[in-house]
Structure formats: C-alpha cells, structure tokens
Write a structure and sequence with these properties.
- The structure is a single chain.
- With about 130 residues, the protein is an all-alpha fold.
- It has one domain.
- It has seven helices and no strands.
- Helix 4 runs antiparallel to helix 5 and helix 5 packs antiparallel against helix 7.
- The longest helix is centred in the middle third of the chain and has 23 residues.
- The protein is globular and about 65 Å long.
- The protein starts with a helix and ends with a helix.
Length: about 130
C-alpha cells in the first residue's frame, strides 16, 4: 500500500485543536487571575506603569476565556472564529512583551532557553492564523 493511500485511511479528528486550546486557555486565565488585586507595587517589579499592568492582567484573563469560548461557538456566522483569532493576537502581543521585558541577549537565547514563553507565543500565533479551522 502506498503511503498516500494509507494516510487517507487515518480518521480526521476535528477536535484536535482542543489539545492545544485548553492548556493555553487555562494558563492565561490563571496568569491573569494571579495578578488580582491589581497593585502598583506588582507593576513596578517589572518596570511597567500601572496602565500597562492593568491591560496585561485583563488581557490575559479575557484572552484565556475567549480562547475557550471561541472554540465552543463554532457556528457558521464566524463569531467563534473571530473570537479565537482575536484572542490569539492578544496572546501574541502579551507574550512578545513578556519576552522583551526579560531583555534577552539575542533571538537564539529566546529560542534555546525561553521555552515556555516561546511555546505560548507559538500557540497564540497558531490560533491567530488558524482560528477554529
């Protein structure tokens, strides 16, 4: 049997994105909740103004919730897909800030040693580009 014919016989699992969506959503919800109650002292630890800290905390919380809800609203009107893509973009923005706050030596330092942040960034990028597809 040829490889192409064999691969066509493997069933397609549409829910596979939930294996990525669920842990990323939970991580962002928990990271957002961890920042409450919002405090200027917490923001100053990272050298951020309170306004940025406010948007990061709420952005993490709502992007995690939106990522999970966006997958459940898989309807034909595209609302769930749009929600998933928007939350993916927010996740990418937040993770870009997190990586840059660490002031890495080079891009190679991020690739080789900042595994968690890079994985979360790639997960956000996946959902920003794919949506619910």
């Amino acid at each position: 049997m040829q490889l192409g014919a064999y691969l066509k016989r493997i069933p397609h699992f549409k829910g596979a994105n939930w294996l990525i969506r669920t842990p990323i959503g939970i991580v962002f919800i928990l990271q957002g909740l961890q920042k409450f109650p919002l405090s200027i002292d917490d923001a100053e630890i990272y050298g951020l103004p309170m306004s940025v800290w406010f948007f990061v905390a709420w952005g993490e919380l709502f992007s995690g919730i939106g990522l999970l809800l966006g997958g459940t609203f898989a309807t034909n009107d595209g609302v769930g897909d749009l929600m998933t893509r928007f939350c993916g973009i927010v996740i990418c923005g937040i993770m870009t800030g997190v990586i840059l706050i660490g002031e890495p030596e080079s891009i190679w330092y991020v690739i080789l040693y900042d595994h968690l942040h890079l994985m979360l960034y790639c997960g956000g990028l996946f959902f920003a580009l794919r949506g619910n597809n």
